[in-house]
Amino acid sequence: MLLLFQTGSVFAQSKMDGVISDLIGTPYVYTGTTTKGFDCSGFTMYVFNKLGVDIPHASRSQAQLGKKIAKADLIPGDLVFFNTTGKGISHVGIYVGEGKFAHSSSSKGVTISALSDSYYSKRYVTARRVMSPSTYEKYADEPSDEADGGGDE
User: Fold this and answer.
1) In this structure, is residue 48 part of a structural domain?
2) Where are the alpha helices (DSSP H) in 24-152?
């Protein structure tokens, strides 16, 4: 199954997007870490491993990594965390731009959802940037015109 992200996505041309799009539709499997099936943190661990970044297989552990990022400052590749059980961080996904994130949902498998979806917006906890700027640049091939803020010399 091939699913293309919406045209104009800041993430559409990146290498990470290619890894994620190849996984769309992979079933949810509790504790899963392979293309036969993923749980949420197994999915994020797999994607980051494909990009040369090792992260642990547990959403709570992943939430301790890197640098805390405000929701307004999210960039593609940041991890986003949710409290879906009422007992703290229990779900993780990868921000892909335009207010959306990729994750392994227990009901849909690997999919793309909006942070603004009522279910996720009520359960959002935090975000972490675990890739260094150089790793992000290596895997996020953003067109240079998007970086043109007009205030540069």
Assistant:
1) yes
2) 40-50, 59-62, 118-123, 133-139
The domain that holds 42 is classified in CATH as 3.90.1720.10
pLDDT at residue 130, rounded to an integer? 92
Looking at 100, 103, 128, 129, which residue is catalytic? 103
H or E element, residue 104:
strand 100-105
Residue 27: CA atoms inside 13 Å, Cβ hemisphere, count?
A: 4
- Would residue 57 show up in a list of annotated catalytic residues for this protein? no
* Active-site position among 91, 100, 128, 129: 91
Lowest average pLDDT, out of 23-27, 41-45, 105-109, 135-139, goes to 135-139
| pLDDT tier, 138 (very low <50, low <70, confident <90, very high otherwise) | low
Q: pLDDT-derived band of residue 16, with 50, 70 and 90 as boundaries? A: confident
Domains identified in the chain, total number: 1
Domain region containing 64: 15-132
